[in-house]
Amino acid sequence: MISARIPRLRIRDYVPRGQWYHVARHEAVSGRGGSPHRHDFPEVFWVERGAVTHTVNGTKQSLRAGDLTLIRPDDAHVFRSTPVASVCMVNVAFPAAHLDAFRARHFAKGRPWPWRGDRLPARVRIGAEDLPRMAWLADELARGPQTRLRLEAFLAGLLLCVERAGDAPAHGHLPEWLRAALRDFARPDHFAGGVPELARLAGRTQEHVSRVVRKHMDCTTTDLVNDLRLEYAARELGMSGRPILEIALDAGFENLSYFYRLFTRRFGATPKQHRRHRQGLVG
Fold first, then answer.
1. Residue 40's pLDDT is what?
2. What is the extent of the structural domain holding 244?
3. How far apart are CA 154 and CA 147, in angstroms?
4. Is residue 80 part of a domain?
5. Tens digits of residue pLDDT in 124-143
6. Do residues 174 and 216 lie in contact, with contact meaning Cβ atoms separated by under 8 Å?
7. Same domain, 52 and 151
8. In-domain check, residue 168
9. Longest pairwise C-alpha distance within the chain
10. What is the mean pLDDT of residues 2-22?
11. Is the pTM value of this prediction over 0.90?
12. Who is most buried in 91, 151, 222, 238, counting CB within 10 A?
């Protein structure tokens, strides 16, 4: 349990006058940790590599690469890296007033605010495709100058990643292990592996994954995997000029006629028609 009598860090000690934020990438050796503290500012941190024990408001959490936490000013917390591995983390801190203004502009009319939570701060699992994006956002902050515009761009990119990570599945609530596996699976280097690869990422047998998918999503794992592949293909068709065959192969379809048949059934248009419609100029 973290004692209530702990120091409160102040934003003015980290962000000089005329600047808008503090950003740092921390590398810690195994078994090392900091001191319990609170803030007078919000903070976001995520694990890029390794694992860390995070004790926040008296609750111990095990975090690994991809875990991101949105710390509120009054949260009391401390980190300790695991005894068996080093850890690399990124944290960004900025004045509370700026976060309030950002919320007022972009999260009005009852839209869920990610920097929420009751006793514990919000924690999300960032998908593998978004981890490099988060690293890029942090590096952009560090390149300076530390302006409000750069902070605005970071917060927008951050909250889009958080929103994607927290999106509810279209067919009901899924267990977190399956949600994480689906986020990791949804990229070309996993598509070719199909259902066995999804089960490997989930750390469960194919039979168990199939039962859970059928229960919560009312479809087969093959249908689910194909839907993720087709969503990827549709995005690529709309946002690139790459050959359709190349996109189909990247999406895990070795049979082009099979890809055309599934795509047309899913989107009501052939891949060529879909591309023509999506890439048409407006105006």
1. 94
2. 176-278
3. 11
4. yes
5. 888 777 888 899 999 999 98
6. yes
7. yes
8. no
9. 67
10. 83
11. no
12. 151
